[in-house]
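Hi W., the pyridoxal-5'-phosphate complex you wanted:
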Amino acid sequence: MAQERDERGRPTRLIHPLRRASHDFQSLATPTYRASTVLFDKLADVGEDRRNEEQYRYGLHGTPTTRELAARIAEMEGAAKVQILPSGLAAIALVYWTFCKQGNHVLVPTTAYGPNGWIGRFLKKFGVEAERYDPLIGAGIADLIRDDTSLIWCESPGSVTMEVQDIPAIAAAAHARGALVALDNTYAAGVLFDAFGHGADIAVQALTKYPAGHADLLLGSASARDPELADKLASTRFHMGIGVSPADCSLALRGLMTFDLRLKHVERAALDVARWLKDRPEVAKVLHPALTDCPGHQVWKRDFAGSSGIFSFIVHDWPWAKIEAFVDGLELFKIGYSWGGPVSLALAYPDLRRPSAQEGPRLIRLNIGLEDVDDLKADLAQSFAKVAHA
Ligand SMILES: *Cc1c(COP(=O)(O)O)cnc(C)c1O
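Structure:
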């Protein structure tokens, strides 16, 4: 090949080269297969292909890289099929587009991930009514379900305030009235809580968090165990034209190789820091599902296989300025949204009204990263000391 004389023009030679590197190659990385156009051998295959959804036929149907990630998440969650979306929030939105129509009513816990909580304002223009409910309502949700309720969201533990929900009780009430249960299973990374085993119909997660694991990309997943529901999610994703970057999927696949180790590490480290905080005189409550201060702790013990690296604590009557000084005074803990990455993070919320109007502004949320846990405790201790002397 290399010796062959090529008389064609350079543009043609560059696009249709005669000389090619060998593809007889194996490595541990999942290659980043990029594609809009996917090639067929013969024209007849194009028509044939449309009937076989396993075939690759256009970038929006996925490439081996994006499908590899979907397969891995399906295996972790026990799902029939998984849709990969450009972010966790896009996965949440996909569930609304798929399972709500004009005139429907949906129930969303007051502790849902912020943008899922606000989405009601946006859904209104499509004639969908979103109502907020108490995350600890359990079987009492039956009283809120209407004939037009199509979807009940759960998120357990709740964002920031960590209430653990009784998903089996909520699912039983929902199914008795023909409503679907969608679970935002990001905290459990799809593995610490068996969404489908506990009655959820649809599971979403922000792959941005533990699966990706390095705070450097956005991805989400939406899945179902029931093949019919899974197909509906797939159809909506396609019709909305939502595809994902194979480069990001390849990074998430790399992240999955260390996923279990990271999750086990942050579980231990977060519990260690949470118990240490519980003994601090400044701290009133530690909202970590494995500790008894956390509402729904008993449900967590019954239903979860473990805990992850995010939790909150509430300090005794500090004014906001002192909370600010404490968070700003941390050195290893950085300030920023999201979690599940290698770097520990801290955030506080001046306008938070959960778990009560008094406690909300005194709550500090921590993401425990992969640093040495003694150094993290020392960092918290030095900031406690600084604000004590201020
Ligand atoms: C981060 C997060 C999301 C959103 O994920 P993005 O990828 O950041 O859009 C959704 N739900 C929960 C519970 C989250 O923590």
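The longest strand covers residues 149-155.

W.
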